[in-house]
Amino acid sequence: MAESQTSEQILQAHAHDEHHGHPDMEEVRTFGFWIYLMTDVIIFGTLFATYIVLQQNTDGGPGPADLFQMGGIITSTFILLASSYTCGLALLSMHKHNVKGLISWLAVTAGLGAIFIGMEIAEFNHLVHEGATIGTSAFLSAFFTLVGTHGLHVLFGLVWMIALIIQLAKRGITPVTKRKVNVISLFWHFLDVVWIFVFTVVYLMGVS
Amino acid sequence: MKRPRALRWMGLVFLLSIMLLAMTGCSENIIVLNPKGPIAEQQRDLMIISTLLCCIVIVPVLILTAVIIWRYRDKKGRKAAYTPEWEHSTKLELIWWGIPVLIILMLAIITVKATYDLEPSKPIASSEKPLTVQVTSLNWKWLFQYPEQGIASVNELKIPEDVPIRFEITADSPMNSFWIPQLGGQMYAMSGMAMTLYLQADEVGEYWGSGANFTGTDFAKMYFDVEATSKEEFDAWVEEVKTDSPKLTLEGYKQLREPSTSEVQSYSAFPEGLFEMTVTKYAASHNHGLSWKNTQNFEFEDQVTR
Amino acid sequence: MWEKIKEFASEFFVTGDPLIYGADVTIVLTLIAIVSGLTYFKKWKWLWREWLTTVDHKKIGIMYILAAFLMLFRGGVDALLMRAQLAMPELNFLPPDHYNQIFTTHGVIMILFMAMPFMFGLFNIMVPLQLGARDVAYPFLNSLSFWLFFSGAMLFNLSFVIGGSPDAGWLAYPPYSGTMYNPGVGQDFYIWGIQISGLGSLMTGINFLVTILKMRAPGMKLMKMPMFSWSVLSSCIAIIFSFPILTATLALLFLDRYAGAHFFTLDGGGNPMMYINLIWMWGHPEVYIIVLPAFGIFSEIVSTFSKKKLFGYKSMVWAMMIISVLSFLVWAHHFFTMGSGADVNAFFALTTMLIAIPTGVKVFNWLFTMFRGRITFETPMLWTIGFIPCFIVGGLTGVLLSVAPADFQFHNSYFLVAHFHQVIIGGVVFGYFAGLYYWWPKMFGFTLNERIGKWAFWFWNIGFYCCFMPQYVLGLMGMTRRVVTYSWDKGWWELNLVSTIGAVLMAIAFLFQVWQIVDGFKHQAKNRDTTGDPWNGRTLEWSIPSPAPVYNFAVLPNVSRQDEWWEQKQSAGAHQTIKQKLEPIHMPKNSGVPIVMSAFWFIAGFGFIFDWTGFIYTGLAGVVGCLLYHSFNYDTDYYIPVDEIERTEAAIRKVNI
């Protein structure tokens, strides 16, 4: 059977996978993560659609303009954007094989993420004190669910990042930890992009 | 000789099921195919046309299937052609992308036209002025209000023949579906919405309707009688109800709304704006379809009960 | 104290129905039998090591199919109970509330806990073998998917004896499924059972998409891939785009019920119609998700048993991809009667009809694969031939339903019930049975008794037509779905009785299948598949021994053609691949994390259902703990040394010769 193959076909076969028929598993894992992000896009898409449909249904209760305090929101937006930037710096350090730089930038990123979460919790707290809870109206149900889901993602990313920092401290930069850093930075940037949409659709369009 | 017997069995089953269909086909019972109004009639015709169109492809394909399986079954000394490498023919494949495309195209044109013609909220062309009946799905009974006559009934719908009926449908219950098979297709009954459905009975007779969408425990008891009478008889009935039947009060409506089944009942009057109140108490921001102009003026005293 | 316990128990356990007490006793006895059997034969360790912690796709596949058969039994019993209740008018065999629970669990179980795991089982067993791969892309995730499905299914089935089953239909339309009309825990069992197993389905979708795109044998270009793998690819694409919608929608329904949110409620500005839209945006693709792999299976079988190349390979691929995409554009045809207006209805009627075109093309291609072939009628082929007319008729009624104004009359009637059973039994179930019979020797290394299999086939088919053809007519007689009973004067009883007889015939058919499998295991020594290629197959899975060794391929095959294995056999040098140089094989290690993590999901789900915070926190903390444990574990794989491969291969060949 090998005879019937042209040399070109053999070359192509080897270009497809370098290690004797094994595809590069770390690359495959990163690829899978992209697909996972796609499914997450759809989850957020569904929540956005729900929010847009229910936005006007305040049931006589408070609406976006009555509730949102843009000062805090803009601050937390900048904090999250900054954390995306520091996450990028962490990756640069990794490419320079600088473990210390990588770990410290990741730590900064996680710290900024924690501040973002803290501010979100404070905002929710404030809303609940104003009497605007998830059960007040369809608008607020959709609001808390959309923003809260994003917040849960950030929280999850935070725990994950801390776990990864410990692994990096223990093992340094290996193909596996490298892939893990790549994947979490993808996740982090993704959450940043989602937040930009939240900021625009929920907050900016809500108060204007 | 397993295989031919197998095939014969299959043929027999088909034949039996077709016979079964043909046998029951003569019966009066297949009410959807035995319409008594213009809407149901057009829907029946549409069913038959689309079935026939599909059969243009399906019958030959079924025959072809049987022939191919029979002719190319493996058997010692079989002389029929055998071409194990034959896997592609642009011409043939174009044909069977083409045939379904053509049939579906024809069906699509028919369907789109019918969809606009038979849009449920489209009035039926008639010299008669339409009669409005307001329908409310309750757990587990139907309330019919005749705003022009000022009367109401439960689980009994009387309509004059040859007069278009404008149904306004809502629910004070989980979503239901209002269906009178012999007069025409169904429409969902949804809280907070007033859906419009035009139907008409062409002949005097007794029909029935049902709730077609599941609403809980006694859902299976939501059948109601539909009686199409002459106009005179209808007027007489209205008069009779007005003189003999009790009034439906707001209190009475609240009792009626409690989960239970109900006998046929009639009421000589109902609280003004009851139907609109039922709709608006659920309508958050979407009360489209409601015929009443100033719905906001009505306020239902109690909140939605849990 | 005793009174308190009694009160709690009568709330907690489902009481008052002899049927359920009987089931309780059976469940407890079966559990005791299993546990004591395992203990007596000292099999716990074996079970844990070989099965519960396995990451081997072949074993996971077998577990999926075993679970699917159990669920088929449960769903089938539900069906028989319903048909018994409907056999005659005005029967009071099942009270309405019990009947409502049964049609709900029947639907949910058959689609989500029978069809889905059956499909995933076939994916698992065959896709890596067809692709010439050693495992799926993410073996750990694969095991996690299975155990998530399993704990979801168990949670859902638990509602039968604890708390009460859901009763709002398989898609649980609000407002009926909201707390206003449905305050019990049944609906929460529904949400969490489906939610947990749905996460598993989503992961499987990602896993197989990546497996197909990245793990194919050297030289196997996409357009040389076996048709079943193509169908899996199209199905996975639909899973990836639709299951997140289900996850989000169920989460919203849960928030309505648990946290008092107002997404789909009647008060507070909620919008129940939004749920109906969202759930069908998942629900419609879902039916194509389960039917596309069946199309793939039929394609493989038609070609093998006609001893002929599959006709119109490219058409088939295009048809499946078009179906996969179109399935997302038709959801509103499930509620033409919602009054969305003629524009909306016309659009969705058209998109629905469009699906008939690629589906029709596939039928033609199967027919012309048989044309000028040499057809033999082993059980896999019988199921395929039974499928074709059944699916054609089901397709016809599907097109009828898509004609929006006519649907106003068909909707929610038994006509609809008959239609979807015809396409799901005739398409999906027949397809999976065909696949199971076709690949059985590859899974277990022995063949099944064809004679019993044929009995099963005929009982299934005759029972099917007997059960569902009358239901079309009943629909036209105005019988609506989900009614618990009907009166004598409607004239429905003759056909209902015939339909019930059909259901019994299908139940007998199922017993034949169980007998066939038991008989197969009893006589497996006699019926051993020594060639690895009992049907004279065409694709790579038949080039290796049955059952496949743990690493599947001692040497990864080089692929240059469609039907690679068939072509190799034609050029006579069939077993030459073995002679190539062996290398150590990289394999994933077993892991107990998936089953433990799924157990924690089960606990969390149970906590959410009964609002027991202790359970919720334990469960969620356990899940996070498992994730962290797995993240810190770098010891996840190993190499099989060359001499061990040589020994394994030699042992297999000794048996084979």
From TrEMBL, chain A:
It comes from the Bacteria. The chain crosses the membrane at residues 33-53, 73-92, 99-119, 139-166, 186-206. Residues 1-10 have a biased composition (Polar residues). GO terms for biological process: aerobic electron transport chain. InterPro entries: Cyt_c/ubiquinol_Oxase_su3, Cyt_c_oxidase-like_su3, Cyt_c_oxidase_su3-like_sf, Cyt_c_oxidase_su3_a-hlx, Cyt_c_ubiqinol_oxidase_su3, Ubiquinol_oxase_su3_dom. GO terms for cellular component: plasma membrane. Residues 1-23 are annotated as: Disordered. Residues 1-207 form the Heme-copper oxidase subunit III family profile domain. Keywords: Cell membrane, Electron transport, Membrane, Oxidoreductase, Transmembrane, Transmembrane helix, Transport. It is a multi-pass membrane protein. GO terms for molecular function: cytochrome bo3 ubiquinol oxidase activity; cytochrome-c oxidase activity. Heterooctamer of two A chains, two B chains, two C chains and two D chains. Cytochrome bo(3) ubiquinol terminal oxidase is the component of the aerobic respiratory chain of E.coli that predominates when cells are grown at high aeration. Has proton pump activity across the membrane in addition to electron transfer, pumping 2 protons/electron. This is Cytochrome bo(3) ubiquinol oxidase subunit 3.
From TrEMBL, chain B:
The chain crosses the membrane at residues 46-70, 94-116. Its EC number is 1.10.3.-. Residues 128-240 form the Cytochrome oxidase subunit II copper A binding domain. It comes from the Bacteria. The keyword Cytoplasm does not apply. GO terms for biological process: ATP synthesis coupled electron transport. Gene3D superfamilies: 1.10.287.90, Cupredoxins - blue copper proteins (2.60.40.420). Its main location: membrane. It is an enzyme of class 1 (oxidoreductase). Keywords: Cell membrane, Electron transport, Lipoprotein, Membrane, Oxidoreductase, Palmitate, Respiratory chain, Signal, Transmembrane, Transmembrane helix, Transport. Residues 24-122 form the Cytochrome oxidase subunit II transmembrane region profile domain. It catalyses: 2 a quinol + O2 = 2 a quinone + 2 H2O. The keyword Kinase does not apply. Catalyzes quinol oxidation with the concomitant reduction of oxygen to water. Subunit II transfers the electrons from a quinol to the binuclear center of the catalytic subunit I. Belongs to the cytochrome c oxidase subunit 2 family. This is Quinol oxidase subunit 2.
